[in-house]
Design a protein that fits this description.
Blueprint: H1 2-8, E1 11-14, E2 19-24, E3 44-48, H2 64-78, E4 83-89, H3 91-102, E5 110-116, H4 128-137, H5 150-157, H6 164-176, H7 179-191, E6 206-211, H8 219-228, E7 233-237, H9 244-247, H10 249-259
Parallel strand pairs: 2-3, 2-4, 4-5, 5-6, 6-7
Antiparallel strand pairs: 1-3
Length: 260
């Protein structure tokens, strides 16, 4: 079963070293959202597309719990030894929390964690419009049309002064997400409640990064993480939105490199 799952995941590796950074992307995006961060990191870097995203295979079951199991398999097969730094953006950060809940022993090798524009719970429930959209998306092989929604993506995902090239790159990634995953993972985001799971991160150097203009995971979510992780460093970028790996790539890379 493990090999079947890994065969479906598009994994990208670069660099070499004793410490491996594993970068986890957000809902509807793919590993390319880390394109500006990965080359700036020392050591080895592993990125992959979550199930149902990017070039990875079908995403069902589309739950954060399944993403945590996928991550555990990736670590077992691709990073079997050595120290690990985990960095998760949005749903990627939630995947790290679910990993802590389901596979706490993994954190014996984790020497740093970066939680980027993410939440430990209390996200909004799925709206009626989202429910209808998700039902329609479930009949599509991919989202596909996201490129024509660039203006909406810029407003919804980015802060002030966002680059249109970053917006278009994000729209292209969203367009590659498969239809059933679009709605399925949105349900799982609403059910995500993992404040208690953060106990596994106690004693591990952790940084919480947040955009002051983030509309998807507003500052209250970052502050809740910082409250649950009193040893963590909280960094707020006042004008940035949700897409910190693109909007503040240099500083995000520096923060992760420091953990390495």
């Amino acid at each position: 079963m493990a090999s079947l799952v890994l065969d479906r995941l598009n994994v990208v590796e670069s660099g070499a070293g004793e410490v491996t950074a594993v970068l986890l992307h957000g809902w509807t995006l793919d590993h390319t959202s880390w394109d500006r961060v990965a080359p700036s990191l020392p050591g080895r870097v592993v990125r992959y597309d979550h199930r149902g995203h990017g070039a990875s295979g079908a995403g069902l079951p589309a739950t954060i719990e399944e993403l945590a199991d996928d991550l555990a398999l990736v670590l077992s097969e691709r990073v079997p030894t050595g120290r690990i730094v985990l960095a998760g953006h949005s749903m990627g950060g939630m995947t790290i929390m679910a990993l802590a809940e389901a596979h706490p022993a993994v954190f014996e090798r984790v020497s740093g964690v970066a939680l980027v524009a993410t939440s430990c719970g209390d996200l909004p429930p799925v709206s009626r419009v989202e429910r209808l959209l998700g039902t329609w998306m479930a009949r599509r092989s991919t989202v596909g049309f996201a490129r024509v929604m660039s203006p909406g993506i810029r407003v919804g995902l980015f802060g002030k002064g966002a680059s249109w090239s970053d917006v278009r790159a994000s729209a292209d990634a969203i367009g590659r997400c498969d239809g059933p995953s679009f709605g399925g993972f949105r349900d799982s985001l609403s059910a995500h409640q993992r404040r208690e799971a953060l106990r596994a991160l106690a004693g591990i150097p952790t940084v919480v990064l947040a955009g002051g203009a983030d509309r998807l995971t507003p500052l209250r979510h970052a502050r809740a993480l910082a409250e649950a992780l009193p040893h963590a460093e909280l960094v707020i970028y006042p004008r940035a939105g949700h897409m910190l790996p693109l909007e503040r790539s240099t500083d995000v890379a520096g923060r992760i490199a420091h953990l390495m």
